[in-house]
Description:
The protein is an alpha+beta fold. The chain folds into two domains: 39 residues; 131 residues, Ribbon (Umud Fragment, subunit A), CATH 2.10.109. Helix content is 22%, strand content 27%. The protein is built from four helices and eleven strands. β1 and β2 form a beta hairpin. The longest helix has 25 residues. The N terminus is likely disordered.
Amino acid sequence: MILALFGHSGRPSRASVRSRSFLVVTLAIPIIVGLGGLLGYRVNLTPSEPLGVWRIRPLERPAARGDLVFICPPQARSMEIARQRGYLRAGLCPGGYAPLIKTIVALPGQYVQIGHNVTIDGIPVLSSTPSSKDGGGRRLTAFSGGSVPSGTVFLHSGFRGSFDSRYFGPVPASGILGLAEEVITYAP
């Protein structure tokens, strides 16, 4: 077995070096991601915000409009469908979802209207035109609108294909894990 890893010169073959390198990387990624999660770091692999490493910074005040937050999606039928369609990734939030990175655009008592775009108390939200279909041609239904209930927030991402409150409505503010802070990111 040991001889199979080495060529005639006693050095490892290129194939065995590649195999070992692949094995090390394959084993290291879950360990790094797991430790990062314990230390408040997350890897974002969705285009709703720049790709890369983010940090969850504690939110030591009430949530405010404009806050970019990590938030656990609620355990709801809309989230189950979103996961089945591939909009949400698996993670450590209740229901087995990964946290979302979204901007809070409306707070309790504010009025949300969704038509050609989203308006909050009559003021348009930039880059908020809802889509009628997802990238796979499946039907998307926009949230019906109304006042944001107590204890919830309305979320948005400027990325056109983002799955946000335009479709699932306000979510419990209790799901906020903290502010989202870029560490090492890039926008494709």
